[in-house]
Design goal:
By secondary structure, this protein is mainly β. The chain is built from three helices and 21 strands.
Length: 524
């Protein structure tokens, strides 16, 4: 698999420039593929965040159905990342503008089934996000079978002609996970998002939008106490992570319930300079709280334990710009995200929450894409990401931090006509560079979490590595109004410098990650 992925990337890199000397495609084929890529990116940057803004969309209506298969193999990873994954996904997506009634609709659905192998220390399938420390772990390796369902819909209505627009967004996801090596474990996830919004045209070219979002996340990993007996294999011992080095080893099995409520307030200024030239500034703030409870079934009643809570806030700001440039099209964006979180463990004896953990992260991304009017190069894209993370365990005084930058560049080339269709090549590469890192384990230097999870994770997160990816796209008109597309691609990633090395480091310069995928798509 590693050789195939490397050869795929290398072959496309060699064939892309050679194909420039072959027969060029007609203008219609070029504009079809490139315009759709441009419109998708344009929609994501300007019209995706707030539902009521969708009425301002000036692109064409479209719908797509895709069937894809992915295979990943990872050697360079953290202990809690899966070593290999095989997945199949069916996805549909559509945006429809109905000018006669003033409605705009967006919808998305996907179903994904997955098999994942060789992850250490995961007794829950998905590690919580935004620095949330509360999850179960155990040393035993795991293999998982998963099913994921996702449904999203949004509608926008022009309720006062070209002056006031109302929108509503809703999404639901339900996931089923089963750990097939260790049959004691299974997990269900559920997430619901509701978001109403309004957009007001307060001048000839300027629109102000406001939205409110409520999100409810709930997951329930179920465990038994089959192996939780004195003298059992330590690989089967179950642990509850409570911070960065702080953890608890439950002596009984239980059903864990993790519930997160998120409230988001967002505002957006959209300036329409011209029909295809506009600027968007979006600011949002999330306030969230995760509550962790455990219920144990007993003959006469169910007893509930409170483990803790995690409060966090997320501040997001973004600017996006679309314009023509030298007969081509230009997209640019800057995004900034800031997360601050605090973990609290519940003291049952004193009936109070005690601060145990704090987390901070800052990341910023600058993005630029240019679509020249050319039959040779269809798109050039560049991005630069800055990423900073910091954690503090108040029980031990343990701290860590690291700062990375990640430049990424990619390009799309037009190749030639083939079987009444067009072939395109896409090439890309990125490089992760660690600017600095620190780790002060203090009294937690020898516990299982620090030695087995945190130290290897820091070795991975602070490494310098490069990656390359490529794909071949064949596109043809099935009928006048239906477009068929087949895409085959792959990528590989390899570390070049390890900046955090100790006796617990598990990554190596000889490690390599690779992936391949196939996508069949119909657009109409």
């Amino acid at each position: 698999m590693i050789k195939f992925s490397k050869y795929l990337v290398f072959s496309i890199a060699c064939l892309a420039p050679l194909s420039l000397f072959s027969q060029e495609s007609d203008e219609g084929g070029v504009s079809n593929y490139v315009e759709r890529d441009y419109q998708n990116r344009n929609y994501t940057l300007h019209f995706d965040k707030i539902a009521s803004v969708k009425n301002l969309w000036t692109g064409e209506s479209w719908s797509a159905i895709a069937l894809s298969a992915h295979q990943f193999h990872r050697e360079f990873k953290t202990p809690q990342m899966f070593g290999s994954e095989n997945s199949v996904m069916l996805q549909t997506e559509s945006i429809q503008m109905i000018d006669s009634s003033g409605y705009a609709f967006y919808g998305k659905f996907y179903y994904k089934t997955d098999r994942e192998f060789n992850s250490h220390f995961n007794q829950v399938h998905t590690i919580p996000s935004y620095g949330n420390p509360f999850y179960l772990f155990m040393p035993r390796k795991g293999k998982w079978e998963t099913q994921e369902y996702f449904l999203e819909g949004a509608a926008s209505k022009n309720i006062v002609k070209e002056k006031l627009f109302a929108g509503f967004h809703i999404s639901y996801s339900g996931d089923l996970y089963n750990k097939v090596v260790d049959t004691r474990n299974k997990q269900t996830n559920m997430s619901v998002v509701l978001s109403p919004s309004l957009t007001y045209n307060f001048s000839e070219k300027d629109y102000l939008s406001l939205s409110f979002m409520y999100k409810r996340d709930k997951y329930k990993p179920l465990n038994s106490n089959k192996y939780q007996q004195p003298g059992d294999d330590p690989d089967y011992w179950l642990y509850m992570n409570q911070g960065m080095g702080t953890y608890d080893r439950p002596t009984i099995g239980y059903g864990l319930i993790s519930e997160t409520d998120t409230y988001e307030f967002a505002a957006q200024w959209h300036r329409r300079i011209d029909f295809d030239k506009y600027f968007t500034f979006t600011l949002s703030a999330d306030l969230a709280q995760n509550m962790l409870n455990s219920t144990v079934s007993k003959p006469q009643s169910n007893e509930t334990f409170i483990y803790g809570k995690y409060d966090y806030n997320v501040l997001k700001a973004s600017m996006a710009y679309t314009s023509g440039f030298r007969e081509g099209k230009l997209l640019g964006a800057i995004e900034y995200n800031q997360v601050s979180g605090k973990g609290n463990i519940y003291n049952e004896q004193q009936s109070v929450y005690q601060k145990s953990y704090s987390y901070k992260s800052r990341n910023a991304t600058a993005f630029l894409a240019y679509y020249p009017k050319s039959a040779i190069i269809n798109k050039i894209q560049f991005s630069l990401k800055y990423d900073y993370s910091y954690g503090l365990d108040l029980n031990y005084g343990q701290t860590y931090s690291y700062t990375n930058i990640l430049p990424d560049i990619s390009a799309s080339f037009l190749s030639h006509k083939l079987f009444n269709g067009n072939v395109f090549y896409n090439l890309g590469g990125s490089f992760n560079y660690n600017l600095d890192n620190s780790h002060n384990p203090v009294g937690a230097f020898s516990n299982i979490y620090t030695k087995s999870i945190l130290n290897p994770t820091l070795s991975y997160a602070t490494s310098n590595y490069f990656s390359a990816n490529s794909s071949i796209v064949f596109q043809t008109n099935v009928t006048k109004d239906i477009l068929g597309e087949f895409e085959m691609g792959g990528s590989f990633l390899k570390p070049i410098t390890l900046n955090y090395i100790n006796s617990d480091t598990i990554v190596s310069l000889d490690d390599m990650n690779n992936s391949v995928y196939l996508i069949f798509k119909v657009i109409f």
